[in-house]
Amino acid sequence: MDPITLGMLAILAVLIFFMFRNGQKRKRDTEALQSKVAPGAEVMTNFGLFGTILTMDEDDNKVGLEVAPGTVVTVHRQTIARVIDDVEAETVAGDDVIVDETSASSDPLVAGEPVIDVRTDAEKQADAEKKSDN
């Protein structure tokens, strides 16, 4: 056999190895997620819906998900993407501002988000004058 054929076979063997390895890892991750999915768990679905599991129907693969007090939606069990742990829990402060619970900052802005000033020039100038007076 020539060296090019041996090299191509070696590359093919490495690709097959990684394919099986990734499949096993994906299977372990799925099993770990399914073991955490139980009534009372806070979860996020594939389409970004957060809620708490109320009921589970193993036969039909349906989950009753409470998304707001008194509002229960039924989703397929496979749409649950992850279980929200206490460490990664986030709370909603205000309307649409999400603040990390571990953050002790008194700044109302979330770090890393762009700031867009929608004030008029007159309002900006008035604020600048107030700051200079103090």
TrEMBL record:
Keyword presence, NAD: no
Annotated TM spans: 6-23
Membrane topology: Single-pass membrane protein
GO BP field: protein transport
Keywords linked to the UniProt accession: Cell membrane, Membrane, Protein transport, Translocation, Transmembrane, Transmembrane helix, Transport
Residue numbers spanned by region Disordered: 103-134
Basic and acidic residues bias locations: 116-134
Family per record: Belongs to the YajC family.
PANTHER family, alphabetized: SEC TRANSLOCON ACCESSORY COMPLEX SUBUNIT YAJC
Protein name, as recorded: Preprotein translocase subunit YajC
Gene: yajC
